[in-house]
Specification:
- A 5-stranded mixed beta sheet has the order 1-2-5-3-4.
- The longest helix has 19 residues.
- It is an alpha+beta fold and 129 residues long.
- Helices cover 32% and strands 22% of the residues.
Length: 129
């Protein structure tokens, strides 16, 4: 079977994911998942979540390129991309992934800073005198 491509997004991060039948290797930006995320175990579990729910952890290889944002946004973008690739790989998995919310793009992004304010909503401290 050929490579399956999908894109995942979260905040300002974009993950390009290629899924191939294999033995469960996950490579991100040329590094293994452990080397890429280091000691961030919760984020590693989040990346593997679509694979563990669909019981395909040992049967597919994932090769991904992630750009933009920080580790949190990148991990969630990768999770979204893996879920979308799995649905292309096997459309029957959609019924498992959809109720878990893995096919939905989390659209929350940082609100822009407004003029005259210190942050998006934080106003300058009021001085009576």
């Amino acid at each position: 079977m050929a490579k399956i491509y999908a894109t995942g997004k979260r905040k300002t991060s974009v993950a390009k994911v290629w899924l191939t039948p294999g033995k469960g290797e996950i490579t991100v930006n040329g590094l293994s998942l452990d080397a890429w995320l280091g000691g961030l175990e919760a984020k590693k579990l989040r990346v593997k979540q679509p694979l563990s729910i669909t019981k395909t952890l040992e049967s597919v290889d994932i090769k991904a390129t992630v750009i933009g944002g920080g580790f949190g946004g990148q991990a969630d973008a990768l999770r979204h991309g893996i879920a979308r690739a799995l649905v292309k790989y096997n459309p029957d998995l959609r019924g498992v992934l959809k109720p878990e919310g893995m096919l939905t793009r989390d659209s929350r992004v940082v609100e822009r800073k407004k003029p005259g304010l210190k942050k998006a909503r934080r106003s300058p401290q009021f001085s009576k005198r």
